[in-house]
Amino acid sequence: MNIKRAVQFRKHIKLSHQWQRLRYCRACGSYTVLPEEPCSGCGSQSFVTLQEYAATLNKRLFYTEALVLAAFLGVAALAARDFLELGIALLGAAVVIALYVVLKKHFRTSEEIFRLQKITERHMPSIREGLLKDALSAGEDMKNDRHKEAYEKLREVGSLLTIEHIKNLKIMCLNQLIIRKDMELELETLLPAAYNKEFITYLYEVSKVNKSLIRQSVLDYLLTHRLRIEQLPFGKELMSNAAVASLRMRPYIERFYPVILDYMDSLPKERFLRLCKLVNGATSGPLARLQQACREAAKVRYGFDPDVQAIWQEG
Question: Is Membrane a UniProt keyword of this protein (predicted)?
C-alpha cells in the first residue's frame, strides 16, 4: 500500500505569456523550462530568457544597421566638394539619424514581438526537444519516488506542452500526495479527453478540500461520465460534492440540474437554502423544475424551519 506524503509545492509564477518560461542555453543552444536546473545538453548554467535572447539579437541588428547607415553618411560627406555641400551632408545625416532613432523607439515593441516569433519558429524543434528532456527528467524523479519534484517539473512543461501524456503524468504524481486546501492546485488544465479513473480519483480529493476549482468544464466532464463515476466506491460522494460546487452560479445550476435533483437530499442546509434562493421565482426551464423539487424537499426536511419558509414567502 502506497503511503501518501504531505508536501508544499514551490510557488508557480504566473506569467502573461507561457513562452516566457523558456530559457535558452548560450553554450549549446538548447532550451528548458525548469528553473534552477543545469542544462541537460552541456551541464552549464549560462541561461538567458527568450526575451533576453531576442533583445541580444535586436541589439546586434541595431549595430549592423547603424554601421551601414554610418558608412552611407561617410560616403556622402567624402563626396562633398565644398563646405556648403559638407554642411548639407552633415545636416542631412543629423536628420536621418534622428529619424532612425525615432522609428526605432516607435516600433520597438513590434520589433521585439516579431523577433520572438521568428526565434520560436526557427527554434521550434530545439524547444520541443528541450521540453521532452524536461519531461524525461520528471520521469526519473517519479521512478525514484520524488513525486513532488516530478510534479513541479511537469507543471512547468505542461504550461507549454498540453498533451494527454503530460496530463496523465501530473495526475499520477498528485495521486501520490496528500491533497490539502492550502496547496496551489490545478484542475481544469488536467481534464482528460476521455474517461480517466486516475483523474476522477484526484478530482474526488479536490472536491473535498477546494470546491471552487470545480467549474463549468469539470461539471460537463462529470455529466458526460456520470454513470461510470457513480459506480466507483466514492462516486456518489464526488457527485454530491460537485452538486454543492455547482451552486455558485446560475449557469452552473442550469447545466448541472439533473445531478442537483438527484443529490438534493445530501445538500447541507446552508447550500440547500442558497439553492432555494437562486431558483425562487423561476417560471420555466431547469430552474423552475428545481424550484418545485426544492419546495417538496423543504416540506419534508424543513417543514417548520423559519429560514426556509421565509424564502418562499419572499417569492
Answer: yes
